[in-house]
Amino acid sequence: MRLVRFAREKLPSFFEGYAYPVLVCLMVLIGHRTGYEFYINIVGCLLFVLALIVSDSLRPMIPFALTFVYQVSLKNTPCAPVLSDYYFTGYRLVIVICLAVLLLIGFAIYIGKTGILGRIGFKNTPLLLPLLCLSAVFLLNGLGADKYTPMDLFFGAVQVLSFLVFFVLFYHGLEREDPKDLFSYFCYITTLVSLLLIAELALLYLDGNIINDEGEIVKGNVFIGWGVSTTIGAMVSILIPINFYRAIKGPLPFFHYLVATALLVASVFSMSRNALLFGCAAYVICLIIGCVYGHHKKAFRIGGLVLLTAAIAGMIVFRENIVRLFSPYFDLGFMDDGRFVIWRNAMWAFRRAPIFGAGFFIEALELLNNYGISLFPVMVHNTPLQFLASMGIVGILAYAYYRIMTLRPFFRHPSLEKTFLGIAILVFLAECLLDVFVFMVYPLFYYNIALIIALLLTKEDESLAPKIGKKR
Length: 472
Prior knowledge:
By secondary structure, the chain is an all-alpha fold.
């Protein structure tokens, strides 16, 4: 009885509090660096399932969802070019299946005890209609195309899981939280994830395999187990805005300003031109906001001038070393790196199947696959073009409808919180004009949670508006 009472009274506050995310991030970092992530992940999954059982909120899922992929180590990664089968052979495959089943049971228990299914509906679930339209075109991708395969349906179902199922689950699992407190918690998790990624990238460089004997960064070696340089850069750069918000309005402003600046530096060292472009843009926009708004305007102005002066002085004094170190940036410049060929092939595929598209596994693009058979297709590296090529006219119309509806919460009852959430989402979507992140599962967790918090903040503002009007 004491154990049951302890579980009911103490465990929810632990899993929904500020210590659990720190534990999760430490476990992820240790697993990533030691190569024992598989065994550490067993503990992490068991803790998360326990959280689902004892907690009435999906708060504990936020640190789990935003960090689980970052534990994949370099030696055990199933990603190219390593392509290890470490997770999927022998007893480990059995454990993976058991953990997946256990997670499903945990979610089933959570859904059953909280009654989420009974709260889903067009009145209670925002964006449900555009999400259903989007899900329909995902499942209908490539319908009637010459080279349609069952894999097209499989990948479409994965997108439904990412866009619809996770969104609905997260929204109704978090809707009873205080939105401002939830936003503060999300900011805290963002800072922890920022420190985690900065540490992983710094340790990767300290391993000594990134910079060659000539003092040049070898871009192909910037591979961290869970992602290549472009993925690392994207995941780092989208974290900049929320850290800036905490620097403007949250606790420890100087610390969070340093974290945001460290993220910018990490974006540069990720060797991703995409992250360099949009990460710098996000940093400058957030810095300008900090210079004109909040309690630390003077500090932001001085800090911005100091950083700009230091950067210019460093580039002048160490120009040759910088040019040599970051030679991949200067060598590639504004080259398309094969994207123009992919985009032309995508338009060719669209013209062949304009209504429902050519499916995700487009023949002309699969010829570019250097790694043989894959569960995931070669992507177009541009979100609108991907919808056109894979899902045709109905696909791009459904995506346009969904995207327009997602803009509404940011323009209704605008606030500083929603502004920075919007900048983070904008960075993510801008990077998806040159890459594939919108069709990857784990980047969408951050996107979905940020969007949900914006919706909940808007809902609270709208509920308070009539009361404020009556008082007046």
